[in-house]
Amino acid sequence: MWPFICQFIEKLFRETIEPAVRGANNHLSTFSFTKIDIGHQPLRINGVKVYTENVDKRQIILDLQISFVGNCEIDLEIKRYFCRAGVKSIQIHGTMRVILEPLIGDMPLIGALSLFFLRKPLLEINWTGLTNLLDVPGLNGLSDTIILDIISNYLVLPNRITVPLVSEVQIAQLRFPIPKGVLRIHFIEAQDLEGKDTYLKGIVKGKSDPYGIIRVGNQIFQSKVIKENLNPKWNEVYEALVYEHPGQELEIELFDEDPDKDDFLGSLMIDLIEVEKERLLDEWFTLDEVSKGKLHLKLEWLTLMPTAENLDKVLTSIRADKDQANDGLSSALLILYLDSARNLPVSHILLDTLLS
C-alpha cells in the first residue's frame, strides 16, 4: 500500500497544506511545494488495539502504534523572497487513532475513514535551508521547535483527516463531530515539589518557581508562575472539549521557570474514562518521573445536553463557583459549522486589475 499512501500524502500536501500556508500570512502568498517524495521506507505498525466497549455499533475504533523513520525529499519555495528550503528526513512515533464509520450494508462496508493522533506525536524533522525560511518576514520569530509544535498540533485531535469511501456519507458530521463532553480542570495546588534553584554554585538548595502546562489533545493551557514556593497554590480553572474516549488522556507537566531553560518538576497522565465514570474527582495525585511531589486536582466531567431545559440550574451552580475562575465558567457550548457561501461580491481590486 505504501506507494499509494505516498500518492495520498502528496495530494494532501498540495491540496490542503499548501493553500493553508498561503492563507496564513501575506508574506507566504507565493509559498509552494516544488517536490514531494516521501521515500521508499514504509510506515511501521508496531501494535494494534481494537476497542470493544463503550463503542457505537456502527463504528470500529483502532489505535495504531506507528513508527516512521524515512529519508524523504520535500522541497518548497517562497518565490516572493527567492527562498528555498526543504526536508530530507522525518521521524514520527505515536498513537494514531483510525475510526471506520459508518458501517454500511453494502460494499465496501465502511462509509468513511478518519485518522488523527490522540496526543502530540514525537516528531523530528531534518531540514535543509531552514535559516533561509526563518529569514522571511513574519517568520523570523519562529524557531525549529515552534515549527515542530505547529505541525504536531495540526495532526492532533480535534484536527482529523476524513476520507469518504462512499458518496452518500455525511462528511461534515464525521469531520466535525459534536464533542463527547467537557472536562473542567480545577488546577488547585501542589506540595513538596523539588527545589531546583541553587546558590553558591550548587552548595545551597533553594526553592522553585513552579507553573503547570495542561494538555487535552491539542488544547494547551499554562498556569501562572508562583515565585519561590515548593507548595504553590494556583486555584485556576480550565475547560477542555473532549472529542474521543476511550483513549484520550489529561496530560500535566510541572516546570520551574528559569531565565535559560525551565527545569522539569514532574508529570501526570489521567485517563478520561475514569473521570467520566466518577463524574467528579477531587484528589491528590503523586507526580511521575520525579522523586517527590504531589498535585491537587479537582476534575469534573460535564455532559452536553441538546436542550436548554437545565440551563437555569447550571447558571445557578456557576454563580456559586464564580470566584474560582478568572474568566468565569461556561454554561453552554455553541457549535457553528460554516458550510459554504454563494454569490459573494467580486473584489473591486480584482476588477481594476482586469480592466487596467
UniProtKB/TrEMBL annotation:
It is a peripheral membrane protein; Multi-pass membrane protein. It is found in: Cell membrane; Endoplasmic reticulum membrane. Its main location: membrane. One of its GO terms (biological process) is endoplasmic reticulum-plasma membrane tethering. SMART domains: C2 (SM00239). One of its GO terms (molecular function) is calcium-dependent phospholipid binding. Transmembrane segments: none annotated. Belongs to the extended synaptotagmin family. PANTHER family: EXTENDED SYNAPTOTAGMIN-2 (PTHR45761:SF2), EXTENDED SYNAPTOTAGMIN-LIKE PROTEIN 2, ISOFORM C (PTHR45761). This is ESYT2 protein. It comes from Geococcyx californianus. The lineage of its organism: Eukaryota, Metazoa, Chordata, Craniata, Vertebrata.
